[in-house]
Write a structure and sequence with these properties.
- The chain is mainly α and 234 residues long.
- 62% of the residues lie in helices and 0% in strands.
């Protein structure tokens, strides 16, 4: 039998309609967007967003950030896992790495299923764009999934509130920057990036659901405690 409640901020699962409404809305939005993007060119607003972003000069600070933010995102799983290991959160490091690894097959499967071409050079400027399908943005998916799981683990392990809030804020900014960078370099449409964010959100939900049922213990303290400090024991 487990003693104590799962630690964290905010409402407990199963008490509020939002617990059901949020996953349903997320999956429904992703499904509708995928259906609209299936085999399609730019959706309404895609071309306008791309041209707006590509009006930013590449030799300025904003342009440099947008050029290279997407490349830096691929180091996120390892970087976050190292931080978790340094904090002696072994299970947390494993969860982050698994989220990063899962992002690849999930993104690739959705790309094949939707079959949407990437932006063409006739419509937008392209900077070393890879071949293959465009929906969803795998880089945006990876960023949201890894940073989202990391933020959930901070709440689960009861990190100091300022630390947790700062991490969430940085994660949001980083996710937005990476997504915009994919549009800036002509690799994806804005709707591809939105699909990546939604797919990453679905992966976060799957990971947090799994973590609710998997509560590894150990002498390293890699286990949540309730507000009174009571450990979950079996």
């Amino acid at each position: 039998m487990r003693l104590g409640r799962e630690a964290g901020y905010g409402p407990r699962w199963g008490r509020y309609p939002a617990v059901v409404a949020v996953p349903v809305a997320l999956v429904a939005s992703l499904t509708l967007l995928a259906v609209a993007a299936r085999g399609a060119g730019p959706l309404p607003g895609d071309l306008a967003v791309t041209r707006l972003l590509q009006g930013i000069p590449t030799d300025g600070l904003a342009g440099l950030v947008l050029l290279y933010a997407g490349d830096a995102a691929w180091f996120l799983p390892a970087a976050v896992a190292v931080v978790a290991l340094l904090a002696r959160r072994w299970a947390g490091a494993l969860c982050v790495l698994l989220a990063g690894v899962a992002a690849w097959p999930v993104g690739d499967a959705l790309k094949v299923l939707v079959g949407r071409p990437r932006p063409s050079a006739e419509l937008v400027a392209r900077y070393d764009v890879p071949e293959g399908y465009g929906f969803p943005s795998g880089t945006a998916l990876l960023t949201v999934a890894v940073l989202g799981v990391a933020c959930y683990l901070l709440l689960r392990y009861r990190a100091p509130r300022p630390v947790a809030l700062a991490a969430i804020g940085v994660s949001v900014v980083a996710s937005v920057a990476v997504g915009l960078s994919r549009i800036y370099v002509g690799e994806h449409w804005a709707s591809d990036v939105l699909g990546g964010w939604l797919s990453g959100g679905a992966l976060i939900l799957a990971a947090t659901l799994a973590l609710r049922f998997w509560r590894p213990g150990g002498e390293d303290g890699d286990q949540a405690t309730d507000p009174a400090g009571t450990r979950n024991v079996s």
